[in-house]
Amino acid sequence: MVTEGRRPRNGRRLTRWTQRPLTRRRIPPRLGFRYVSDMLTAALIAFDSPGAPLRPAAVARSLGSLVESCVQGLIADALILAAPGRGLDGIADEAGCALIEAPHAADGLAQALKAARRDHLLLLLAGFAVERGFAEEAQDFFAHGDASRARTLRLAPDSLITRLAPGLARPVGLIAPKSALAAAAEGADLARLVRKIRGADLTTRARCVL
């Protein structure tokens, strides 16, 4: 089931989680990339892990980390995917997101692909937040790289092994065309999607906010 969140009075999304005015602005030329507008639908995957219930505050923090991407024109709209009865209606309403309720993450993702307004999606596990520089790096590859190739967002190294081999860090996000996700998504969780689609790793990382 898809529930549309109420738009904030100023007409912008995700305003609940920041004090900055969400006025559309162009990226200064000194950052070295062209401005690309509204390329992504963000889908926050907010399902509980076994033995580790997801707190609503973690969902809010994950959404808050995407505000800069919204300000910079990278993210056009956002969805929250969750099991029914998780009490995320208020967060979705305040942030201006659509809430998609489904019994399993794979079912929620299938609905998200139908509801997404853009041809590319950012999938992000709730409980993780993108680090600074994410919007700039994503803008850069949309402007200058191969936008048809998926990009994987990994957790910042948190052990000796992942510091020595950052590619072994847990994948917590994925940017991919809707068509590629539709072809690979049946019954797949995020980790399986990353293995199926085989995208390049982003330099920017994510941090845990559980």
What does this structure look like?
By secondary structure, this protein is of the alpha/beta class. The chain is 30% helix and 24% strand. It is built from 8 helices and 9 strands. The protein has helices spanning 56-64, 67-71, 89-95, 105-115, 134-144, 160-164, 178-184, 190-197; strands at residues 2-4, 40-45, 75-82, 98-101, 120-125, 128-130, 151-155, 171-177, 200-208. It has a 9-stranded mixed beta sheet with strand order 1-4-3-2-5-8-7-9-6, sandwiched between helices. α3 links the parallel β3 (75-82) and β4. The chain is globular, with a radius of gyration of 16 Å.
Give a quick rundown of the structure.
By secondary structure, the protein is α/β, with parallel strands linked by helices.
Which key features would you list for this structure?
8 helices; 9 strands; single chain; about 210 residues; alpha/beta; nine-stranded mixed sheet
The H-and-E topology, N to C, reads as EEHHEHEHEEHEHEHHE
* Unreliable segments of 5+ consecutive residues: 7-12, 15-34
Helix share bin: 25-40%
Major sheet, described briefly? 9 strands, mixed
Strand content is: 15-25%
Write the layout of secondary structure elements.
Layout: E1 2-4, E2 40-45, H1 56-64, H2 67-71, E3 75-82, H3 89-95, E4 98-101, H4 105-115, E5 120-125, E6 128-130, H5 134-144, E7 151-155, H6 160-164, E8 171-177, H7 178-184, H8 190-197, E9 200-208
